[in-house]
Amino acid sequence: ARPPDEPQTLQVAAGLADMLQARGEAAAAMELLQETYAAQRRLLGEEHPNTSMTARKLAEALRLQGQRQAAVDLLRETLAARRRVLGPGHPHALNVAMSLAGALQDLGEVAEALQIQRETYQAQRAMLGPDNPNTLATAAILAEMLQAQGDAASAVELLQESVEAQTRVLGAEHPVTLSMA
To answer: Which SUPFAM superfamilies does the record associate with it (predicted)?
Structure first.
């Protein structure tokens, strides 16, 4: 059933879609996300933060169902909207950029994915600092991409820097630090 065209109800509907996805009800989640996204675009416009958040969720659902090109297309549109409204270095724009990099990698567009991930990492280092948990998580993803591209030396160097920072920030026994080691 289509959610009513009210901003709060649409936001709750997007959250419900997350729960459906987590329960393995991918088709129901996809349908609800598509309806919610369409309603938010009509009611709030494509540049509204809630619309962008739902677009990201929809793109992830598309990726999970193998509709990689559709996910990339949606993320490109969403990233352009976030950059127009918030600027290219805003955390919300950077989060969409990271999603786009992952979707591009899934699609086999590895060079572009790596470029976007590098740019995102550099922007986070500049804005959030090198020891910020989000920056460090982005570094780990970038290291995985570098490794997949055969640049093991850069991947190892980046991971070593990240583990050192995680140890400083969270401690040597923290689960995140241990997962990166």
So the answer is: TPR-like
